[in-house]
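To whoever is on call:

I kicked off a structure prediction for a single chain this morning and the downstream step that reads the tokens threw a length-mismatch warning. I double-checked the sequence; it's 263 residues and nothing unusual in it as far as I can see. Pasting both halves so you can look.
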Amino acid sequence: MATTNGSTAIRDKILASLARYRALRIGKFPCAFWRLSSRPGLTAFDEAQTLPLKLVTPTLAALSHLASSHKTSVVFATATQPVFSHLHTQISNHCDKGWQPNEIVNEPLALFTPLERTEYRWHSPQQRWNWNYLAEELEQHQQALCIVNLNRHAQAIIEEIDNPDVLHLSTNQCPAHRQNVLAEVRERLQNKQDCILIATQCIEAGVDIDFPIVYRAYAPLDAIIQAGGRCNREGLLEKGTVHVFAQKMKVILQMEVINKLPI
């Protein structure tokens, strides 16, 4: 958690406010803007790592200007704090202070030690898994979560799994449908019933579920860390396991394209 205008008093007020206020989602982005107080000048962004890349520089420049010129404290809260500090020079072209946030939690790295509830197993990118192999891996477990990068990948895995009770979660579903799926997932997990969930990255931010094992397709590091947050979330196991794998992509060439290839 970082702020552009940090002090102990501000930190205590922010942490107290965070416990009382819920996020207001803006548009289609997972990043949420929080109004923490009836007094002006105290705001926060939850899941700050989801800021769209093309908007990062102008957004940070505007926030830096608010912090330096209008006595506004801006808080970025996330388990995977993006390293925006490397944009300091670029942001300085738009505002004098650039981007120089302060940590408002004492010794933040020390907080991660007691939260090491998972271990990551990184499978070689050269050993790409096809959907059939991944389906066989998932079917070995009573409860498992698999996260892939595209909706069509999730659908392809579901078609390979010989289990009519496998669950699916993606942005192809409406919000109400996704909530119904998550409710069923939580019920199955709590009752120790079979539960295989195939999902896209929509499950990685702000979704409170706890699987003993997670499979995650290769993705940006912050996404992989977020996936780990769905594994052994409640610390019921000594260690949960997150498998990070590279999927084998099928390249399908139409016959008319093949016929045009030079021989």
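Update from on-call: the warning came from a stale cache, not from the record. Cleared it. Sanity check on the structure: Residues 18-29, 34-38, 251-263 have pLDDT under 50 and may be disordered.
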